[in-house]
Amino acid sequence: MTLTDVNIISKKILVGFLIFVVPLIIIGGGLLLVKLLLNK
Amino acid sequence: MALDKVLARKIGKDISVSLFIYALPVVALFTYFAIKGQTPWVNNTHQPANVDVPAVFKFLEPALKNIRSWGFFVIVLVLGAIEFALGLYDNKWTKSERKIDIVCFLAPKFLLPPVTAFFSLKLLPFVLPGIANEFSWVPFWAGFFIIAVADDLTQYWYHRLHHQVPFLWRFHRTHHSAPYMGMAMASRQNFIYTVFFSQIYLTAALVYLGLGVPALVVTVIKSFITLSAHSSIAWDKPFYKYKALRPVAWVLERLISTPATHQSHHADTVGDGVGNYKGNFGNMFFLWDVIFKTGIITRRYPQTFGIKFYKQEEWYAQFLWPIFKSKVAGSELSANGPEVGDEIEAQESEESEIPIHQQSYKEALA
């Protein structure tokens, strides 16, 4: 495995991480907002 | 090889729309509680989610409850045996293809669980301490839609980007290299593609936050749809054949992946009006392809499958590229191989015509 391969895998992990973390923030943040906005 | 600018803009636009789609089930839940005046998280007044397996599927209950471990394994074996008995693999399931299918099917069963267990049991409690089951008040119906959209839209993007971003293609190539369709195709993947599946970790995080039961139900439904879409058994054919069933077919083929729409994705050509290997990316839902205009629906099945630039690479290169490279000269998986072989072939062979991949981009953008 060369440095180029490590670079490609790193970029791939970054893309995968973004695809994972952005929806998690939207959904998790959204559910927290539901609680906050409706709390009496 | 750089990403086409028009395509990059289209991807950016579709991602923006996706962010809105991810939020939709949460907005629906907010509206529901606001109208009902309910706050189930106060004093934990919610009912714990519990789902019974319908009586007709009771015999499948043990496999369904263990879908993440041995359940999926057993279902694939049974359905694969049916395909084999029906002779659906023809003579294309050669010794080397069998080896790739079996390695890709078995090895992740041993290699993946330690990774996902570490993520769920160690990493999540470390990164998000003290909020396990924070959202256990979410009703089952809402949890179901949240997980279904989150899991499948994330997989749609993961899958689509591996086709449309050139440097990612070779991680996904193994899934397309087989010149046939069948159950084995669902798990025929490069291990690095599988181990970094974003939706696995997203769903695991949502399970950690309290959406475990909806996640299990979605996983079972998704497994069946994905498997049957990869199958060479064309279960959707009667829906196109009988006039009375055609309205059902219209809805079904736009909502979920069917053998016709998904086989089109595995075709080795786009020239016949049936194949669409640079589109039809949906896994459980085909709806994403409808929304983002990346799909075609023809109700027909391709004649040939695979990739034109296939060089029957070794199993270890297909399973573990770029850790292990192919020794086949000129292969995409070899040490100095091209990033996307088909692109080069198309440009070299048809200077005067529009390259095959650009054709499909234009169709997708139309």
Descriptive account of the structure:
The complex is a heterodimer of chains A (40) and B (366). Chain A contains 1 helix and no strands. Chain A starts with a helix and ends with a helix. Chain A is rod-shaped. The mean pLDDT of chain A is 95. Chain A is mostly helical. The longest helix of chain A has 36 residues, at 3-38. Chain A has one helix spanning 3-38. Chain B is an all-alpha fold. Chain B has one domain (5-313). Chain B contains 16 helices and no strands. Chain B has helices spanning 5-36, 61-65, 67-85, 95-127, 140-164, 169-177, 191-195, 198-208, 212-230, 237-241, 246-255, 259-265, 287-291, 315-320, 341-349, 356-365. In chain B, helix 3 packs parallel to helix 9 and helix 4 runs parallel beside helix 8 (198-208). Chain B is globular. Chain B starts with a helix and ends with a helix. Mean pLDDT of chain B is 87; it is low at 351-366. The interface between A and B is medium-sized, with 27 and 38 residues.
| Overall 3D shape of chain B | globular
Structural class of chain B: mainly alpha
Average pLDDT score of chain A: 95
User: Helicity level of chain A, as a percent range?
Assistant: over 70%
Query: Could you give a short account of the major beta sheet of chain B?
Result: none
Coarse morphology of chain A: rod-shaped
Distance between the first and last residues' Cα of chain B: 24 Å
Mean pLDDT of chain B: 87
SSE inventory with pairings:
The complex is a heterodimer of chains A (40) and B (366).
Chain A: H1 3-38
Chain B: H1 5-36, H2 61-65, H3 67-85, H4 95-127, H5 140-164, H6 169-177, H7 191-195, H8 198-208, H9 212-230, H10 237-241, H11 246-255, H12 259-265, H13 287-291, H14 315-320, H15 341-349, H16 356-365
